[in-house]
Design a protein that fits this description.
Layout lengths: L2 H9 L2 H19 L4 H9 L1 E4 L4 E4 H27 L5 H26 L16 H9 L7 H26 L5 H19 L6 H17 L5 H9 L11 H25 L6 H6 L3 H27 L11 H10 L4 H11 L4 H32 L7
Antiparallel strand pairs: 1-2
Helix pairs in contact: 2-6, 2-11, 4-7, 4-10, 4-11, 5-7, 5-13, 6-7, 7-15, 8-9, 8-10, 9-10, 13-14, 13-16, 14-16, 15-16
Length: 392
């Protein structure tokens, strides 16, 4: 095979990005538990940029708030395309991820609170509410065409709604201070972006430049800056035509490879450097550990499927096209991959309490690993029951 054709096939393989992501997780864990751990953490803590306009941040912040905004931009573009011309173009299909996300946030928080209400761990109720959009989509992408595309779109939409909900929870309950002047400026820039769309401006550069300012203002407002990527995505023009390529589709195509094979691996490499300790293991059987593990696995599974079932029975929503309830169970489990967002909320919940933070991190890691394995296994088994999906 021609080498250029080989690489083209590799980069277009959805499973390849998932395999690279998992490999980066393993490398990161090995580094964190080796003699190189201190040097690696020093690199992540090193501040780069310029103090002018307050743009000097640690490397980890540039990755989590900067590069991941590009990831959210791509996911937002995919969701908008599906809303306009794809799987989410009908109200019944579009409403299901919203109902599912609400259930997937409420039930885990309730389960965690049952274990920890009135204890020193009570403030961590937001930890199991979050779904790690990057890792959950990476795992499901490894299944390729063995599951219907509608299931992947449903998980992506669910994860975005879930993530927006987590951002609101952080802003309302875990943010010490919101800078309202920057937030108002963010709203102003967002309004400008949608005005450009209304005026049918099609050149992408006229959206990217205001999008950079949107990221800047949101970051300084105290709200997680990755939401800028979603807002920018929803302002990019598209159409319902399958003939004419829209600005949205052009940008989506350009972002696919750098996001899948550069941004997501970097994100995984820098966010899974967890150093194991004996305190972490002991924390699994504590009410903190049980609340997190049961919340992420059982809470997500029950909440997503219960609220989806109710919405469908009330004829407010319908199952994703060509899917079944076994696959919905698999998605409910994959949504239990809390990981980065859950760790972030854990750090906010237990500030300056390092032992508790370590216990929470380990419980999140265990729950996310179990959710990934169980979710992948069930979805893989469901595809064997429906071999016709391989031909789609």
């Amino acid at each position: 095979m021609n080498l250029s054709l080989y690489f083209k096939k590799f980069f277009n393989n959805s499973q390849a990005s998932g395999i690279i992501l998992i490999f980066c997780v393993l490398i990161s864990l090995l580094i964190a538990n080796s003699s190189a751990a201190e040097a690696f953490q020093h690199f992540l803590d090193k501040e780069v940029g310029t103090h002018i306009f307050g743009l000097e941040y640690p490397v980890s912040i540039w990755i989590n708030d900067g590069l991941m905004a590009v990831f959210f931009l791509l996911v937002g573009l995919e969701i908008k395309r599906e809303l306009v011309e794809g799987e989410l173009s009908s109200f019944k299909n579009a409403s299901l991820p919203i109902f599912a996300a609400v259930g997937g946030m409420l039930v885990p928080a309730v389960i965690y609170s049952i274990f920890n209400s009135g204890t020193e761990y009570g403030s961590g109720w937001g930890i199991p509410m979050a779904t790690d959009i990057a890792f959950s989509l990476a795992i499901i992408s490894m299944l390729g065409k063995r599951i219907p595309n509608s299931i992947k779109i449903f998980l992506a939409a669910l994860a975005i709604v879930d993530d927006l909900g987590a951002i609101l929870v952080i802003a309302i309950f875990y943010t010490e201070q919101i800078h309202w002047s920057y937030l108002l400026l963010s709203l102003g820039v967002a309004a400008l972006l949608f005005l450009l769309n209304f005026l049918k401006v099609t050149r992408i550069i006229f959206y990217i430049i205001p999008g950079l300012f949107l990221w800047y203002f949101l970051h300084h407002s105290g709200i997680h800056a990755t939401i800028a990527g979603v807002l920018l995505a929803f302002s990019i023009p598209t159409n319902a035509s399958h003939v004419d390529i829209s600005p949205l589709e052009k940008l989506e195509h350009k972002l696919h490879i750098p996001v899948s094979f550069l941004i997501m691996p970097i994100f995984a490499l820098t966010n899974t450097n967890i150093t194991f300790s004996s305190e972490m293991v002991a924390g699994i059987t504590s009410t903190l550990g049980l609340g997190i593990i049961c919340g992420l696995i059982l809470g997500k599974l029950i909440g997503i499927n219960l609220f989806s079932f109710i919405a469908i029975k009330m004829k407010l929503s319908s199952l994703p096209q060509n899917s079944n309830w076994v696959q919905m169970i698999g998605v409910g489990l994959l949504a239990g991959i809390g990981f980065t967002m859950s760790i972030f909320i854990a750090l906010l919940s237990f500030k300056n309490e390092i032992p508790i933070q370590d216990e929470a991190k380990f419980a999140i890691l265990i729950a996310s690993f179990l959710a990934a394995v169980l979710g992948y296994t069930i979805l893989s088994m469901s595809s064997k029951e429906r071999p016709e999906l391989e031909e789609n």
